Amino acid sequence: MSAHEPPADLAAFFSDGRLVSVPRRPARRAALLEHLVRTLFDPERSYTEREVNETLLTVHSDSAMLRRYLVEARLLTRARDGSSYRRAVADDCDAPAALTGPASAQPPAA
To answer: How far apart, in whole angstroms, are the C-alpha atoms of residue 29 and residue 47?
Structure first.
């Protein structure tokens, strides 16, 4: 598998290197987004919105949707003024909650 090839469990969502569908299941979608951010964005640099869109257009025609998913999953961070984006630094403690939704419900403290 090359650096840009999807892992076997995501291969069904790609055709000729292009994303043809986005998984509905949260775990699969999280895996897809992780793959995209890892293979498309350098963690050492900032990107303008235009650069993010152009990069995402290399794999799918709806760059706005993918950009939104990546930001919501906290895999890309956006400057407060929207002027730049960066690949988020993975924090092992926060990654599962950020990718799959809110933390599991815990009983209230007594």
So the answer is: 23
Which residues on adjacent β-strands are paired with residue 33? none
Question: Any idea of the CA torsion for 97, 101, 106, 110, to the nearest 10 degrees?
Answer: 90
What number of other Cβ atoms are within 10 A of residue 50's Cβ? 9
pTM given for the model: 0.76
pLDDT tens digits for 54-101? 999 999 999 999 999 999 999 999 999 989 999 998 653 344 444 444
- Tokens 């509905």 locate to 24
Tokens representing residue 81 in the block: 């003024």
Residue 47 has φ and ψ, to the nearest 5°, of -130, 145
